[in-house]
Design brief:
Layout lengths: L10 E6 L6 H13 L4 E6 L16 E3 L9 H13 L3 E5 H5 L2 H6 L4 E6 L12 H9 L6 E4 L2 H9 L8 E3 L28 E6 L8 H14 L7 E6 L5 H10 L6 E5 L4 H6 L3 E4 L8 H8 L4 E4 L4 H4 L5 E4 L4 H11 L3 H18 L2 H18 L1
Parallel strand pairs: 1-2, 1-4, 2-3, 4-5, 5-6, 6-7, 8-9, 8-11, 9-10, 11-12, 12-13
């Protein structure tokens, strides 16, 4: 990262709920890492940060507010005071958990206020919760520009929240094609888990209900029971950790599939883990624009994903298969399509890589954010 900074760089304060492993946080880190020669970045975590912050290339200020569980009214005054001290040119909040900090930003005198909608919460996977919609409507006067990471999200903001189209900028996530690239590498796998003849299915994501890894495991179980001798060559990798882990472990033990399924826990070596896979599956109940789909496509993997959120904008007919959410039989059928069809795996994987390079390169995303920031700065 260049250390030749421009003088008088504008200051941007990014406000998020927690700096942890996740698509939203990954996108933020990518933006900061690619623009820190142009802007002074600060990050406010409503809760706290984690080891994930080490992915930041620069030693930028990170503030942890350690919000208490439930209603913590002090969070508003503390955010206001912090913003008064930092005096940023721009405040950029992300998702509903941070949207309420737009009020303190306005009262702190921040002239440019941006809000990004990245995806849905498990409590509102389709954006139908009237309370959440009301919160977004009440905060409309505080936000100058919205960034929507998928077209369905942009439509929701316009049609359900009442945001004028002129105040919504769609920006797709971008993926680092130098960090994620096609290569077959099984060195990361546990000893004895798989050999070169195995077909490895994998997913990456927090083990939380919204990601619905349970359906993927059920699909895998269904496939193993249907295909003779499949225990000899089918394997499943689940990368991530979270509240579903014990339930997943119980299901695996009940079906006696511990030798076929590897729960990696939370990992930082995602590129090499993806390179150990042959097929990527994202069984989420809701998504914005999934970083993990883009990373899998950049790695040259065919993708099976649920037909939700922005997934149809990423997965084309020549790069993978879309299935109904929470439908283990449809997911199992899609997996079966690839079994014993190495050429289809190769073709879809190559098409996915090509699609990422043409449409979802990280520099395209960064340039779009720079355009939004600079146009708003020029207008003030």
């Amino acid at each position: 990262m260049s250390t030749h900074y421009k003088k008088n760089r504008p200051t941007i304060v990014h406000i998020i709920f927690r700096l942890q492993t996740g698509g939203l946080e990954n996108g933020l880190v990518n933006i900061v890492n690619h623009t820190d020669s142009q802007y002074k970045h600060h990050i406010i975590c409503i809760k706290h940060t984690t080891e994930f912050s080490k992915r930041l290339h620069s030693d930028i200020p990170i503030y942890e507010l350690h919000k208490k569980e439930g209603r913590d009214l002090s969070i508003y005054s503390r955010t206001w005071k912090l913003l008064r001290d930092v005096k940023p040119d721009i405040v950029h909040t992300r998702n509903l958990a941070a949207l309420e900090m737009q009020g303190p930003a306005a009262f702190a005198g921040v002239k440019i206020r941006i809000h990004g909608e990245h995806g849905w919460d498990i409590h509102d996977p389709e954006g139908k919760n009237w309370r959440y919609r009301l919160i977004r409507q009440l905060h409309r006067p505080f936000v100058h520009q919205y960034i929507a990471l998928s077209q369905p999200t942009a439509n929701y903001l316009h049609q359900s929240v009442g945001i004028p189209i002129s105040r919504i900028t769609p920006i797709y996530n971008g993926v680092d094609t130098e960090r994620f690239y096609p290569k077959k590498d099984q060195s990361v796998l546990p000893s004895g888990f798989a050999d070169s003849n195995c077909l490895i299915v994998g997913t990456v994501g927090r083990l939380e209900p919204i990601k619905d890894q349970i359906t993927l495991i059920q699909a895998f179980i269904h496939l193993v029971k249907q295909i003779p001798n499949s225990k000899k060559f089918l394997r499943l990798i689940l990368v991530g950790d979270g509240s579903l882990r014990s339930q997943i472990e119980d299901l695996i033990e009940e079906e006696k599939l511990g030798d076929l399924i590897w729960l990696t826990g939370d990992r930082k070596d995602i590129p090499i883990l993806l390179q150990s896979m042959d097929i990527f599956v994202l069984p989420s109940l809701a998504e914005g624009i999934s970083n993990t789909i883009l990373e899998a496509m950049a790695t040259g993997l065919p993708v099976i994903a649920t037909h939700v959120g922005g997934n149809p904008e990423l997965v084309a007919e020549d790069t993978g298969i879309l299935v109904s959410k929470a439908d283990y039989k449809a997911t199992s059928k899609a997996l079966a399509t690839y079994i014993n069809n190495a050429q289809l795996i190769k073709n879809h994987g190559q098409s996915g890589r090509d699609r990422v390079e043409k449409k979802f390169a990280i520099q395209t995303m960064v340039d779009n954010y720079i355009s939004v920031y600079n146009s708003l700065l020029a207008a003030t």
